[in-house]
Amino acid sequence: MLEKSAITQVPVADLIARRWSPRAIDPKRPVSQEQLLGLLEAARWAPSCFGDQPWRYLLWDRFTDPAGWQHAFDCLAEGNRVWVKHAPVLLLSVAVPNFSHNSTPNRWAQHDTGAASENLVLQAAALGLVAHQMGGFDAEQAKSRFGIPADHACMAMIAVGHPGAIDSLPEDLRQKEVGPRERKPLDKIVFSGNWGAAFKP
């Protein structure tokens, strides 16, 4: 996999710095059952309000369930299909809207589902796998195709696989693949005390 460790303002854990979202995926190499279980187990241990674990994942493997995988693939936006066609595994993260212990609305469900997915993609990085989360998909189509309850929130499709050749990508995506990683500086995303107040570490 192309190494693109983050250039951070201060040191962070190596795994966090190394995690990024490649698009070049080997189309011929399956993800093992052991690897998939590792990703899902990492997600299982994410923090959540009341320990409710409001996340659910649908999983499709192109090698063992090509028809199901194709149905999931067909929910993707056209721009994502160009490269996701090589991914052996697709997952869909879904947030359950109500707490399991009292059925009241859980306004932290989507936040917690995101935390679980971050655990999942960090575990993928630790295993040397590609894991790329996407918002570009038709959530209503996914609900209809896969029987997802109407009140649940489809959060992200996640393509998983082994690193592949960059030259398998179209030219515009090759440029993104090798281009620098960028983030807003801390003083643009962190305030001291009051909204908009300059960050003073």
Automatic annotation (TrEMBL):
What the entry lists under Gene3D superfamilies is as follows: NADH Oxidase (3.40.109.10)
Family note: Belongs to the nitroreductase family.
UniProt-listed InterPro entries: Nitroreductase, Nitroreductase-like
Q: Which Pfam families match?
A: Nitroreductase
Name the record gives this protein = Nitroreductase
- Residues forming the Nitroreductase domain are 16-162
Kindly list the GO molecular function terms attached to this UniProt entry: oxidoreductase activity
Q: Which UniProt keywords apply?
A: Oxidoreductase
Q: Which residues cross the membrane?
A: none
Q: Which organism is it from?
A: Candidatus Competibacter denitrificans Run_A_D11
Q: Which domain of life is it from?
A: Bacteria
Taxonomic lineage per UniProt?
Answer: Bacteria, Pseudomonadati, Pseudomonadota, Gammaproteobacteria, Candidatus Competibacteraceae
